[in-house]
Amino acid sequence: MRDGSDATLEQVLRRDRRLVERALKVALRGEPGVPQRLRLAMAHSLLGGGKRLRPVLLLWTYDAVAARRRPPVGRDGALVAAAGLEMLHTYSLIHDDLPAMDDDVLRRGRPTCHVVFGEATAILAGDGLQARGFGLLAEGGGPRGGALVARVAAAVGPAGMVGGQQADLEAEGRDVTATDVRRIHLGKTARLVAAALAVGAELGGATPRRVTAVEAAGLQLGLAFQGADDLLDVTGTAAALGKTAGKDQDAGKATWVRLEGFDAARRRTAKLGAAGLDGLRHELPPGPARERLLALGTRMWQRDR
Question: How far apart are CA 100 and CA 126, in angstroms?
């Protein structure tokens, strides 16, 4: 697949991942007065690999919308906001891996932050990335920075990701319903994926109605992404996943796989993924950027194939 500049999907993906990496490094270096050990811990988790999925979703949604409008923020601003979103995601991973949470020793194929730097510094590294991430969202969003911070804060806060993680912990080993699993997956995963798409659309100049519709499609895609992750917990290896395989099963996590079996969970994941893609296809203007975004969205829920 090629975009309008005769670049393949993989080439554009590599390019934008490199741009995100550079923006993350600049943001880490650009704040004076950070204790050295804390800075190293933040860099260990933030710059230790990763797909950079959420910032790329933001950028490509921005590209799709901005291609037909005069965006209120340039792409450089969208890139700063994308870096902020990745910092927020990474903060959540550091805290999720802590012994009091999922107690994992491997993330992105490397020892987790608390294994290398200790629990106290890991907690502070997550806190630092969270605060810095919101700052970058405000900075990159320009005149819409405050609205972006409010949107993402709702997605990651006590009624979003943090609340989803709490519900996830409470559901371990207990009987759950389909409603329970959906609520947990919406909170801990889907809302931040949807926020990435919504922020990209807003920075690209989309109308409020379209931003809301893109966010709704993102929720479906985020649910499919979490569903694929649950499937990979069963079929994947630590080397392929970059984290410990089989932990969801061992902990009795609330997943579609545990609730309804592998095959039914796979069908549900495919249905959610297709619905999310249909929503984005309907709401975003046709063009190379939209096609790239749809191709990436397809990969998000077909990872176990």
Answer: 14
Burial 202-213 (b: 16+ CB within 10 A, else e): bbbbbeeebbeb
Q: Assess whether pLDDT exceeds 50 at residue 4.
A: no
Average pLDDT over the chain reads 92
193 CA to centre of own chain: 5
Instruction: Report the number of secondary-structure helices (H) and strands (E) in the chain.
Output: 16, 2
CB count in 10 Å sphere of residue 28: 19
Q: Which of 103, 85, 87, 95 is nearest to 122 (CA)?
A: 95
C-beta of residue 210 within 8 angstroms of C-beta of residue 202: no
DSSP secondary-structure letter at 242?
Answer: S
Say if residue 222 is exposed, middle or buried (CB neighbours under 10 Å; 0-12, 13-18, 19+): buried
- Note the Cα 231 to chain centre separation in Å: 18
pLDDT interval class at 78 (50, 70, 90): very high
69: pLDDT strictly greater than 50: yes
Residues β-bridged to residue 300? none
Query: What angle separates helix 75-96 from helix 53-66, to the nearest 10 degrees?
Result: 160
The reply to whether the predicted model has a pTM over 0.85 is: yes
CB-CB neighbours of 153 under 10 Å: 14
**8 A C-beta contact, residue 184 and residue 193:** no
Give me the count of residues in the chain.
Answer: 305
Residue 3 has what pLDDT? 45
Is the model more confident about 235 or about 241?
235
The model's pLDDT over 156-169, given as tens digits with 9 standing for 90+, comes to 999 999 999 999 99
For the segment 79-108, the average pLDDT, to the nearest whole number, is 95
Q: Are 221 and 281 in contact (CB under 8 A)?
A: no
Q: Which domains does the chain have, with CATH numbers?
A: 9-301 (1.10.600.10)
